[in-house]
Amino acid sequence: MSKESFERHLVLVGLMGAGKSSAGALCAKRLERKFVDTDHMVEEAAGISVARIFATLGENEFRELERRAVSAASASEVPLVISCGGGVAIDPVNQEALRESGYVVWLDAPIPELAERATRKSGARPLLAEGDPVATLQALSEVRYGAYKAMADLRIDTAGLGVSAVADLIINAFIEGFTG
């Protein structure tokens, strides 16, 4: 991998529950990079949780804050590992910023597994707060999968894998320059 390539951001996208935050934090540690999570950046900017933003300000305001977070992370001159909220990819402005500044890895798994992972923390996922999580994630996947596919340099199936194994796959692909 060229020095220039290694200086790009490592960007993780995918539906909630795919392992972006957990694997991303481990990748950052192993690559000796700073880890940023766009959802956490949004929470810091708003001073309230993502769930409260959705409840009080609405999804449109959340998406605007998210766009600002993506812009700030993408513009960093220091190479980062960026974990993106699940909906980042549906915004063409976000897609362009992330593609231009980094290597994008789409983490994926079967919908039932994503639902099981995403519902482990009660109240943390506003889009899963009501109804059947599997049905909700299926509907989200129908909207988002095309965007993930379009922007990703690589798709990794995380089904049945632990955080360390997912981080290994991401780092190996990153070091190989996504030639596989």
UniProtKB/TrEMBL annotation:
Keywords: Amino-acid biosynthesis, Aromatic amino acid biosynthesis, ATP-binding, Kinase, Nucleotide-binding, Transferase. The keyword Amino-acid biosynthesis applies. One of its GO terms (cellular component) is cytosol. GO terms for biological process: amino acid biosynthetic process; aromatic amino acid family biosynthetic process. Pfam families: SKI. SUPFAM superfamilies: P-loop containing nucleoside triphosphate hydrolases. GO terms for molecular function: ATP binding; shikimate kinase activity. This is Unannotated protein. It comes from freshwater metagenome.
